Amino acid sequence: MNRTFTLFFILLAVAKFSLLQAQSGANKDFFDPQTIQEIDLTFKSEKWRYLLDSLRYNGDGLLNAELKVNGKSFGRVGIRIRESGGFQPGNQRNNLHIQLDNVSSGQQLQGYKSIRLSSALRDPSMVREVLATDIASKFMPAPKANYANLTINGKYYGLMVNIEPFEAPFFERYFQSNNGAFYYCPAIRKDTIVRAGCLNGGFGTLQLEKNESCYGDNFVVVQGDGLRDLAELSRILNQSPAQIESILDVDRTLWMLAYNNVLINLYSYSGGKSTGYYLYKDADGRFAPLIGDFNFTFGSYKSTGRGSDLSLLQLQQMDPMLNVDNTLKPLINKLLSNPHYAKVYLSHLRTILFSELLTGAYETRAKQLQEFIKPALANDANKAYSNTDFDRSLIATIGRLTQIPGIVELMNERVRFLKRHPALAVLPPVVSDVKAKHREKFVASPMEEFQLNAKISEFATKVTVFYRYNNRESFKTAMMHDDGQHHDEKAGDFIYGVSLKPNSGNNRIEYYIQAENVKAIAYSPERYMFERHSATLEEINK
């Protein structure tokens, strides 16, 4: 009897552990970087390659297939080849879009209605997208990415990059809203006809068009009521740049432009054609740009629009102020012509350079990713590059006609070039000892306001604190002064302070500090987009 009960409880424990494992797997982030997803598609027709190619040529039609993800069946879904300048009929491995709710309305996976799979066509290293999104997400809104083994009709199609779609979970994570107008600037097809009276070759530069409809030649309305919002953004950018902060999140835009430059991401606004990026209008009515395709980072796409593709040396030594004098790219020209915005831009460029590249963190991560995916890639008969190319792809240029720079080969020299560049040679102020004053001992009355202090190195001309009392608010600003009027201050001691009284019902503050001298700007914390200082009235009154 005892043996029977013992066996029963062992079996019960095993079943419970298996259930917990299954639940854990089901709840695991679909873009967990330590996981290679297993995706299986089954088409009725064995001619599915031909059918997908045909649909790609004739619009955005979907071909139905049965889908399983990590063994879970989703029934019928819609499949198409994703928009891509590199599409060729008969490719062994193409970028794929899986529409989960095409047949079963409301079907989703962890809140997503679709799955985006990239073939990493111009990336022999197979790490550009995952590495680049990982870096971007530290400074700006960026999709998550990992890998997926894709099987079609029982045969291994290949190792794909699994990229988070720009859908509700993404927008709610970064913008707390999924209802804003949303535009995409795709690659311009060769058969595109520019309408009469519209700019020829304007692409997605946001140059001012005479007619609102002209923006439809370059942008797709993904969500929203048409092109009016986009036309208004372009009008203010070009004609009233002093008002630009009313309609554009300038700081997020400057982060994107700095990122594009440092990481040589020219298949975006900063490159020759200003395509491949998105614009999302947040709840405050301001647009934020989003990088759309990370496969071309680290110099995989090499055109600045001024002559032929850049050589390796030209990529390594690309000007950090690229296009600042180019009136055909107003998002760069208009913003960086503003001295304050130019300093913010260079601060962001410096932060990415010193925190991600100079430390060698990017190289370590790239090697870890390659080691992680090597077994799966070894079984991929449809991969575009050989195992030898994969092994050499970090340190050597791959290809003869289409030359893809080695990531480390490119970036190590770029780091050395940028460190010596005059635009980055000026040192910004140093911000340290950031704190909120606590109530002093033996003082009976509680503090009802936050007294914030920070030590700023010499020659600061302006110190600003950005603060809010809850995460539903936009950040407000206040000046900090070295005037001896706040805790631990004496006039001229480089301790800057400010007192801020919260609104009724609020007892917490989060904030970051911007310190400016004549030629440079510094922030504390450096990654203030996602990390901030904070204090509560309860803490300071202990």
TrEMBL record:
Coiled coil: none annotated. Transmembrane segments: none annotated. Keywords: Capsid protein, Signal, Virion. InterPro entries: Spore_coat_CotH_CotH2/3/7. The keyword Signal applies. It holds the Pfam family CotH. The lineage of its organism: Bacteria, Pseudomonadati, Bacteroidota, Saprospiria, Saprospirales. Residues 1-22 form the signal peptide. This is Spore coat protein CotH. It comes from Haliscomenobacter hydrossis (strain ATCC 27775 / DSM 1100 / LMG 10767 / O). The keyword Phosphoprotein does not apply.
